[in-house]
Amino acid sequence: MKRQLGLKYRLDPTPQQAARLRVLAGHARFVWNHALAECLAARERGERVPRYATMAGWVTTWKRQEATAFLTEAYTDNLQQKLRDLDTAWQRHFTPGLAADAPRFKKKGKSRDAIRFVNFPKYCRLDHRRVKLPAGLGWVRFRQSRPVEGRITSCTVGLDGGHWHISFQVEVELATPPRHPATAAVGLDMGVAHFAVDSHGTPHAGRNSFRQLEQRIATTQRRLTHKTRFSRNWKKQKARIARLHQKAANVRRDTFHKLSTTMCNNHAMVAIEDLRVRNMTTSAKGSLAAPGKRVKQKAGLNKAILDQGWFEFRRQLTYKQAWRGGLLVAVPPHHTSQTCPECGHVEAANRLSRASFCCQACGHADHADVVGARNILAKAHEQLSGQDLPVAPVK
C-alpha cells in the first residue's frame, strides 16, 4: 500500500536563484492568465471550455509569436503543470456538489507564486540539505527540519510571506494498511466563543490570530497610503503587511496542528459538522430596495468566523485520520443545537441562549455547545449504521 505525504521546508536561495524563481513564477502566471482568457472567450462563443490537451498546444504557438517569444526562456514543465492546474480548476467548477468558483486571473503580488517540478528522480536530486533543481537554478539550500523519507515524485516551490518554501511530494510504501490503535470516538462542535467543544464537555480555545494582529495590520496599511505607489519604501511597507498576515496564518495553523494531532491520536473516529462557511459569511448589506439589518454586527460575526479557519482544521483532520487508519465523519448541521441528546426532542425553544440548553420536554440542561457535540457524534453513528432514526418535528 502506498501513502503520499507532503513535506514542506524553508528554502534559502541565493539572490540570483531568487530572481530566477520570480521569473519562472512570472512565466507560469502569464500562461495561466493567457490560457484563462482563451477559455473565457470560448465560453462567450458558446463553446466548451478546452481541456489540457488543447491548451498544451497553445504554448507552442505562443512561443513562435513575437509578442510572447519570451516564453522560450521559460521551463516548459512549469508551464504545462500550470495548464494542468487550470484544467483541474475548471473541472472542479463544473463538478456538481463541489460548489467551486470558476478560475480567476492571477495578479502579481496578490496571488501566490508557485512552480512545480515533476519527475523528480529524473530532473532533480536531493543531497541532505541541498536540492538540485532544473531551469538554471542548480543546487539550492533548504532548512531540513525533519528527514525526507520515501520516494520523492515531485516538488513545488512557492513564495509565502516573502520567503520561498519547497514542498516535496513523497510516496511511502506500507506493508499493511494502517489500523488506528484507539477505539474511542468524539464529536466536535465548532464555534466562535470556543473554537471547538468536544462531546466529553472539554472546550478548546482558539487563537484568534488575525484579531490579535488586526490593529498592527491596520496601522501598517494606513502608512502604506502615504507612500508613493511602487516606490522602494512602498514595496517595503507591502512586505511588512504580508509578513503580518503570514504570522497570523502561521499561528492559526500551529494551533490546528496541535489540536488535530491530539484528536486523531486519541480517537478512532472524529465527527464534525459539514459547515458551509461561504453561506455562513454572506454579507447582510442587502440592496437599496431592500437594505439589510444589523449589517455591522453581521460583518463582525463574519470576520470572527473567517478567523477561525474551520476548513483548514477539517483538512488536517481528514489526512491525519487517514494516515492513522481512523475515520472522519461530517454530518449535516441541522438542529444539532436544538435536539435533546437524552430524549431526542427537537424544539427551537430548547436553546435558551448561546450557551444555555434546556429541553422543554424532559428538562435536561447542559451547555449548548456540549449538547451540539453529543448530537454530532450521535448523527455520525447513525450515518455509519445507515439508519435514519425518527426525530420529532421542530416546533
TrEMBL record:
Residue ranges constituting the Cas12f1-like TNB domain according to the UniProt record: 310-376
Pfam families listed in its UniProt record: Cas12f1-like_TNB (PF07282), HTH_OrfB_IS605 (PF12323), OrfB_IS605 (PF01385)
Domain Transposase putative helix-turn-helix intervals: 1-47
Superkingdom: Bacteria
Segments forming domain Probable transposase IS891/IS1136/IS1341: 169-283
Keyword field: DNA recombination, DNA-binding, Metal-binding, Transposition, Zinc
Similarity comment: In the C-terminal section; belongs to the transposase 35 family.
NCBIfam families the record matches: guided_TnpB
Protein name stated in the entry: Transposase
Organism: Halomonas mongoliensis
